[in-house]
Input
Amino acid sequence: MIARVWRWTKWAIAGLLLLFLLYQLWILGHLFWWKSHAPASTSFMSIRLAELREKNPRASLQYQWVPYARISDSLKRAVVAAEDDGFVDHDGFDWEGIQRALEKNQKRGKVVAGGSTISQQLAKNLFLSPAKSWLRKGEEVLITFMIESVLDKQRILEIYLNVVEWGNGLFGAEAAARRYYGLSAAQLGPDQAAHLAVMLPNPRKYEKQFGPRLQAHAERILGRMRYAEIP
Output
């Protein structure tokens, strides 16, 4: 009896490992495809659309892909300055930031900070969910390694700026520029770019406070933009 249980346990573990491997290969295949193709949707987009359609079955997302050259350098610099000022130099991880986040999480007894880089945030946006857990964080690390291995820095930033959430049902730089300023992403100036960049940690909250309430934070980002390196 014990031998039979152990045999079935081994088969179950092997099956789970196979499923895990197949899932990682599925992710890797998507990343190779996205080296030259724009994502039609992401995990975050699917989650937000489902939430919107609970209230309005006809709801849709605002999302329009634009190539890297049609996104203002000001926005690129503002986002790097606000979210990940070591972006062009690191391997996908800000190890000092991660250490600070771990210390903060240990003090609080739960995951409250992640020390995430742009590459890690892209991993989460493309494949995962906003939920915070150690399991999700572990998968985020694996996906980040794949992102950094498959995509160059310019492509990572290009995809990130096109798929990141900038409001409820609002995704990407082009949709954000048109919603908040009536401009294309290519036309954004430094002040406008800084305001958009400071929204990223909590875009659905900050879209309700857009304008003067974000000014002080935006001015700090403006002061750092000149030092931000972009690919």
